Amino acid sequence: MAAVDDLQFEEFGGTATSLAANPDATTISIEDPHETPKHQPGPLRGSGREEDDELLGNDDSDKTELLAGQKKSSPFWTFEYYQTFFDVDTYQVFDRIKGSLLPIPGKNFVRLYIRSNPDLYGPFWICATLVFAIAISGNLSNFLIHLGEKTYHYVPEFRKVSIAATIIYAYAWLVPLALWGFLMWRNSKVMNIVSYSFLEIVCVYGYSLFIYIPTAILWIIPQKAVRWILVMIALGISGSVLAMTFWPAVREDNRRIALATIVTIVLLHMLLSVGCLAYFFDAPEMDHLPTTTATPNQTVAAAKSS
Amino acid sequence: MAEAAESPGDPGTASPRPLVSLGSATKGTEGEARVPPKEVRGRARDLRDLLLIHLLSCLVGDLWGPLILCVTLALMLQRGSADSEKDGGPQFAEVFVIVWFGAVTITLNSKLLGGNISFFQSLCVLGYCILPLTVAMLICRLVLLAKPGPVNFMVRLIVVIAMFAWSIVASTAFLADSQPPNRKALAVYPVFLFYFVISWMILTFTP
Lengths: 306, 207
Description:
A: mainly alpha; B: globular
């Protein structure tokens, strides 16, 4: 009898902690002694949840999730629903930008800065700024490179703004969508402890693009070596932010799939930066061309630098 | 016009709005002999107040002024059809869409952040604050009739920067006040980006 009472007490504990996760726990009846083996997963599940809290680094994660649930309760066709995605203050946006610029090993951008309050302000306006930074810097850089040439006629290349906008916004929304879908699919196969909502992934991607704004401005410098060094630095910083954010989400999975996911994330990021550099910025030719012997030297230099 | 907008004849009462400068401009007409620097300052204040009076019409959500300004700017920025194929400048429709789409986006952003300005008022303010940039475009077109060169470019650059600063100051005065204090910068930054892009289009205009 005492054993049953102990199990009874145990079960209350198990029910309280895993109530949200497993409502079936409440339906296990205590009077049936055959159920005893099934109680064993209970305490394991309970300790698993505590581990979960430690990994998340947040003792009151349940509380914050509850609060988040209470916050976003308006139906999606009201204006208030969308206002919840802009519920950030100036200092919070600055903190998130700072977090994307200084990746700390072991710290997770989502848990540290976003904390169940993903915003759309950062991703949207960082992408908008990046679009114009790339288009304007590319235009300026091409102007400076071709400055001395007699046959060069300056054009503002306004079409490139729309192309840049399509590329950047597609990257900032479709890649998170694909990644979220992939993570949800893996979650159904392997029980991952950490999982992100779609908006949190969009948020991380948006803020990770911030480093490319100063990079694009510095790409005006018409030196190939400088540009590639900038690519490496920017990729290093934002790639590590993304890798450290998503590693906990795929860590539980098959080793190869986890590594492949991280490598794909970083590879797509690199593709974006190298693609933008190649398309919007002309290759810098040799700087000190003698202006007397114009055409042959230019073609030779162009062949050398391409 | 200045007297009509101000409540008549109260030199003693201190009005809390920037309209108090209208009072000082009207006070200036008391004496005919004025020191030139004060006159210049009075004229500058009159110009700013002129813009503010038009902005007052935004209280009723007037959109005619912004529409006329936007059409004027777009007409001046577009190319002639002869060389439009090899030119990379914006077309009329592109400028129009950018101005109105940008203004709508900034207004939506401001309201989503929790500002309490009405939709049409915000559109109106942003539209009217295109006026300095339209003036800059006009001046740039005139300056471009002269001989091209670095001096030509510097003059245009200074004019565009000055008008850009004026646009920002005028629109920020209205839009920042409607936001809670911890989000002012978040609401003002898109305005900065918007006018920066328009200024860039004006500066890079080549006939």
